[in-house]
């Protein structure tokens, strides 16, 4: 099954905002509400069988040309099927004011650390996550350093070892 067939199979069974296969990368964009159903479909449908969550990340589109009026963030899932040797990228758009996405830990346990990293770096929360705490930075760190408006010269408090 090629990328176009994967996109068609998802489009037939789920509400999809848009799809594209730019340079061979099959991408489907879904609403936040449809995301859990689409991810479950990708994993459980035998013709798709995306059994591996390869990566989960986010993109900050603050001041990106052409995206000034759209949602600030996109949460991006890269899925791979070992059985069929095909892949797909699933995206959902998230507003800055309500940066919460349903957790995928129930589908792929590896999402646990990926979601914690996205929370730590971008500030996007994952509802239903079993332990959404910072992964890369210490708890007293202020802000989310991969946001485009994070001041790179910002000083953080120095934290010593707990006594």
Uncertain residue ranges: none
Helix content: 10-25%
CATH topology, by name, is: Beta Polymerase, domain 2
Give the termini separation: 57 Å
Tally of domains: 1
| Beta fraction | 15-25%
Radius of gyration: 17 Å
Number of helices: 3
CATH homologous superfamily name? NADH:ubiquinone oxidoreductase Nqo5 subunit
Structural shape:
globular
CATH domain class name: Alpha Beta
Question: How would you portray this structure in words?
Answer:
The protein has 163 residues and is of the alpha/beta class. It has a single domain (3-127), classed as 2-Layer Sandwich (Beta Polymerase, domain 2), CATH 3.30.460.80. Helices cover 20% and strands 25% of the residues. It contains 3 helices and 7 strands. It has helices spanning 3-13, 35-44, 111-122, and strands at residues 18-20, 27-30, 52-60, 73-81, 86-94, 100-102, 125-127. Strands 1-2-5-4-3 form a 5-stranded mixed sheet. Strands 6-7 form a two-stranded parallel sheet. The radius of gyration is 17 Å and the shape is globular. It starts with a helix and ends in a 36-residue tail after the last strand. The model has no long low-confidence stretch (mean pLDDT 93).
Spell out the blueprint of helices and strands.
Layout: H1 3-13, E1 18-20, E2 27-30, H2 35-44, E3 52-60, E4 73-81, E5 86-94, E6 100-102, H3 111-122, E7 125-127
């Amino acid at each position: 099954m090629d990328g176009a067939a994967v996109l068609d199979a998802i489009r037939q069974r789920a509400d999809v905002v848009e799809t594209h296969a730019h340079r061979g990368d099959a991408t489907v964009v879904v609403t936040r509400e449809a995301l859990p159903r689409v991810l479950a479909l990708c994993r459980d449908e035998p013709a798709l069988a995306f059994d591996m969550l390869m990566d989960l990340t986010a993109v900050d589109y603050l001041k990106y040309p052409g995206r000034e009026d759209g949602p600030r963030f996109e949460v991006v899932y890269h899925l791979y099927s070992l059985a069929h040797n095909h892949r797909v990228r699933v995206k959902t758009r998230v507003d800055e004011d309500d940066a919460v996405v349903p957790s995928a830990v129930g589908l792929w346990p590896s999402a646990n650390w990926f979601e914690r990293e996205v929370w730590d770096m971008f500030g996007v929360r994952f509802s239903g996550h079993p332990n959404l705490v910072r992964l890369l930075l210490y708890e007293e760190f202020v802000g989310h350093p991969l946001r485009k408006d994070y001041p790179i010269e910002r000083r953080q408090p120095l934290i010593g070892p707990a006594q």
